[in-house]
Design goal:
It is built from seven helices and ten strands. By secondary structure, it is an alpha/beta fold. It starts with 5 loop residues before the first strand and ends with a strand.
């Protein structure tokens, strides 16, 4: 049996802000299996953002262990963390984080550029994934020429193009109207049905209702972990 995609063992994260020590995470232990569809919820200051940064290899824990796909990433140096993010993770952000000067297809290609794929291979995969999110007729458009929902579809295609083992979404419908948000959540549901492992960080019960497992944080600890 393969190991869990995510293994967190007694994870702590402490920040020093001037003379004040802030314990953002206080001993989080949990596993996330391949194909899981997880929502992480909790009030402001509960540790959601810190958890996302650690899961996304954007930061390291102060203590404890984080294994991603069976590999301990807890103490990797910056270069190794960057390589792991590029090869194994896909990110979808509330604010899309698209490069305004680039076209749809060029934005989708970005992760492949950092992996050193050829221009021909990158362009072919970008076209494929643009089509998967329904943007095959918008390839040469720039982000400012798209609706919010379309921009988020570009971000999803960019997150998928490197075939990550884990997709992390941070408030993915936060800037969208209800109809566009529902369309994006439908895309997530379809991706999970195809086998993708999804973690959504959100405060929105409508978003979390799509997940099959809801983890609630409070004061840096797991308050509850239940199937939905």
């Amino acid at each position: 049996m393969p190991p869990p995609i995510v293994q967190l063992d007694n994870l702590h994260k402490t920040y020093q802000i001037g003379p004040v020590t802030v314990e953002a995470l206080r001993g989080v232990t949990l596993d996330i299996l391949a194909g899981d569809y997880v929502s992480i919820m909790g009030p402001s200051g509960c540790g959601k953002s810190t958890m996302l940064n650690l899961l996304g290899c954007l930061d390291r824990p102060t203590s404890g262990r984080y294994c991603l796909g069976g590999e301990d990433v807890s103490r990797m140096n910056d270069d190794a963390l960057s390589a792991t993010r590029s090869a194994r993770l896909g990110f979808v952000f509330q604010s899309y984080n698209l490069i305004q000067q680039l076209t749809v297809v060029e934005n989708i290609e970005i992760p492949l550029f950092y992996q050193g794929q050829s221009e021909e291979e990158s362009r072919a995969r970008a076209h494929e994934f643009a089509a998967r999110v329904g943007l095959e007729d918008r390839l040469d458009h720039k982000p400012f020429e798209l609706s919010g929902g379309q921009q988020q579809r570009v971000a999803i295609a960019r997150a998928l193009v490197n075939d990550p083992i884990l997709i992390l979404a941070d408030e993915p419908t936060g800037n969208l109207d209800s109809n566009s948000g529902a369309e994006i959540l439908k895309v997530f549901d379809e991706l999970n049905a195809q086998g993708k492992t999804m973690i959504l960080v959100t405060h929105d019960p409508t978003v979390s209702s799509h997940a099959r497992r809801i983890i609630r944080l409070r004061d840096g600890r797991v308050e509850s972990d239940v199937l939905n």
